[in-house]
Amino acid sequence: MFDQTNLRVFANHVRAAAENMAYTLQRTAHSAFVKETEDFTVMLMNRKGETFGVPMGLGATWYPGLTWGRVIDMVGDYRPGDVAFTNDPYSGHVATHAPDTHLWKPVFHDGELIAWTGGHIHNTDMGGAVPASLSRALTEIHQEGIRFPPMKLVREGVFDETILSIMTTNVRKPDLNVGDIKALVGALNTGERKILAMVQKFGKQAFLEGAEALLDHAEAQARSILRSMPDGTWEFVDYADEDSVEANPCRLKLTLTIRGGEAVLDFTGSDPQLGSSLNVPSGGDPRHTILLVGVYYVLYTLNPNILLNTGLTRPFTCIAPEGSVLNPVQPAAVGMRSLTCARLRSVIFGAFSQAVPQRLPAAPAGNNCIVNVMTTDERTGRTVLAAVNPVVGGGGGMPHRDGTNGSGADAAYLKNTPIEITETEVPIEFLRYGLARDSGGAGRWRGGLATEMAFKVFAPGSRITARNRDRSFFRPWGVLGGRAAGLSDMVLNPGTDRYLRLGNIDTAVLQPGDVLEIRSAGGGGRGNPLERETWRVARDVQRGYVSVEASEQDYGVVIRQGVVDEAATARLRSLAPVPVAHFHFGPEREGYEAQWTPAAYALLTEILAGLPIHWRFFAKTEIFRRMKDRVGHDGVAAAFAETRARFQEMPEPKPVTRMAAE
Asked: Which key words are in the record (predicted)?
């Protein structure tokens, strides 16, 4: 029934409905993190719970491929006016950490279920061990706040006050939680009205067929993009700086195979599930949206007209072995899964960059530090808890332009909260919020600059959480001759005798007058920096993006008194070597991989995969502890032999038969 013209008309109605939902939520939410930062989603779903419509300009961009069928089936007996919810990452694997509260509502027409509306909000706090509920240091999900398995929150239009009272008793800012949840219910109601309006306009059968046609069209678009790529297999590895308070790197490995209009993403070789909260709860779903977020960015980069819905996931199959960091089992903590997801996106970008090198950018910053402050407002005596601002890094250099400054591509949906609003809500003083010079990777197209922020607190015992701190050791990589970007950092009381570098620590207690300074990473550069036009380099220097020293060292451009010395520049550039490698990772990773070679990691993966799940992270930590003066495959073998001798309770690893992708 739907030709291309009619389908586009229907798609526009669907998008408008989803955007109306998003506006309803944004304008009625209570917390700054929802109404300003926009960490929320809304969506329209077909009868099976497959997402067929999302907004394009509001909210987070992680979940266009989310499938709700599992949690829908865990409730049952739906009636008009019902709204169900969950925030439990292990119940149906729709929610992925406790602060993300997901709600869904059935839509009936003449007594028949025809669709669902749904969405999530990130609650400022869900209780647990730390303010805002999230810290890398947490080791089991029970520390990350109260969890609700799938259940009805609203029954035929009436809120279950018992459930709300349980929540408000266990969280630190109950008014924000309840206010945001009710705002999301309002958004679901808006979506319901818009769906019924579409049914009235197009007819029920046409609406049902249209929802399926949108999924089929998105699938066809995704397959078309894959067919435009060469068939082949590519491997890529990237690291999170620290897997826990033990501070060993967390390795993610991807083997990408493209054949025709399909792709397999095999994450075998990634680290075992961790004794920290960096685990990603995918449930082993081969098309879980959280594993495919990086794929959505690749597809949308290559075709900005693509429809965002569950149909995009159909050509892809993910392999995430059980008991790995990308498929943990209970009670593994998962609250900081967004840090690992940032690295997961980097791994996906790196693999696809090899498949279509001329069409994709360098690495974005890959860290989106979200800062929360819990302090006392001396004016009122009340405890205040609020998100301050996301500190997001730069985008990678593009095939046709520089990376975006301070808005790192895959984290760009996190909007800045105006400083005036934050200072009104939280008794802190901003000292700086801007771009960091020399932080973008050098290239023909420069990487986007990092963001840096500094603020002062005034009350004793002010508790800070700065989740997703990463890229303070492993840099965002450059491509095709471009250079890796600047690193992130977090410093307490810079420029004073109380100076303390915090690195990737994500919680801290500040006292009156303390200043916290946070800087993100930049974006990687793309292309040979010696080919960047001298006038562009001079303009970057004039704008404060690049220092005079860096213009000479990184770009070979000599600037004297604000003017390019063309003759000196030509001489300097003629002496510089031409980069040839596809990637530039920076000296930190190069030094690390001189010790931890591919052969070393292959043996480590084999050892850990053969152990029971509850032994794996412990064994990894002990092997790393014994690798201080060892290198490569033989070093791992010796370190494991020492570990076995020391801990004789550890079982002998079983041989692992690696299952091939179907």
From this structure: Hydrolase
One-letter amino acid for residue 16 of the chain? A
Q: What pLDDT is recorded for position 202?
A: 96
Task: Return the HEC string of 502-523.
Answer: CCCCCEEEECCCCEEEEECCCC
Residues 530-544: what's their mean pLDDT? 97
Contact (CB, 8 A) for 457 and 510: yes
- 457 touches 375 (CB < 8 A): yes
CB 286 within 8 A of CB 315: no
pLDDT band at 660 (very low <50, low <70, confident <90, very high): very low
Query: Does residue 562 register a pLDDT over 50?
Result: yes
Torsion angles phi and psi, residue 99, rounded to 5 = -65, -20
pLDDT at 662: 33
Residue 409, pLDDT > 70, answer no
Q: What angle is formed at CA 346 by the lines to CA 583 and CA 95, rounded to 5 degrees?
A: 175
53, 389, 492, 504 from 495: Cα distances, Å: 50, 23, 9, 20
What DSSP designation does 423 have?
H
Task: Provide the strand spans (E) within 225-267.
Answer: 232-240, 250-259, 262-266
Largest CA distance in the chain: 80
Q: What is the pLDDT of residues 158-186, one digit of tens each?
A: 999 999 999 999 999 999 999 999 999 99
Residue 375 host element (H or E)? strand 368-377
Token digits of residue 390: 């996301």
Rounded to whole angstroms, the Cα distance separating 95 from 89 reads: 5
How far the first Cα of the chain sits from its last, in Å, is 34
Task: Collect all residues with Cβ–Cβ distance below 8 Å to 109 and sequence separation of at least 6.
Answer: 196, 199, 204
Residue given tokens 């520049």 in the structure block? 569
Report, as an integer, the average pLDDT of 496-519: 91
- Domain parsing of the chain, residue ranges: 4-220, 362-528, 596-662
What is residue 479's DSSP assignment?
Answer: E
CA distance 108 to 80: 7
Mean model confidence pLDDT for the chain: 94
pLDDT of residue 126: 96
Kindly list the distances between the CA atom of residue 582 and the CA atoms of 351, 441, 447, 475, 529, in Å, as whole numbers in the listed order.
Answer: 11, 15, 16, 15, 14
Angle (CA) 574 576 582, round 5°:
125
* pLDDT given for residue 661 in this prediction: 36
Tell me how far apart the alpha carbons of residues 620 and 248 are, in angstroms, rounded to a whole number.
Answer: 9
Kindly give the pairing relationship between strand 507-510 and strand 462-467: antiparallel
Rounded to the nearest 5 degrees, what angle is found at the Cα of 43, between the Cα atoms of 392 and 113? 165
Which pTM was predicted? 0.94
Q: Which of 575, 555, 577, 557 is nearest to 567 (CA)?
A: 557
The CA angle 43-313-102, to the nearest 5 degrees, is 35
Buried/exposed 270-306: b ≥16 CB within 10 Å, e otherwise: bbbbbbbbbbbbbbbbbbbbbbbbbbbbbbbbbeeeb
DSSP H helices in 432-586: 534-543, 548-555, 566-575
Q: In angstroms, what CA-CA distances link 252 with 350, 391, 432?
A: 12, 24, 34
What is the amino acid identity at position 93? Answer: H
Find where tokens 């990184």 sit.
554
pLDDT tens readout for residues 452-470? 999 999 999 999 988 888 9
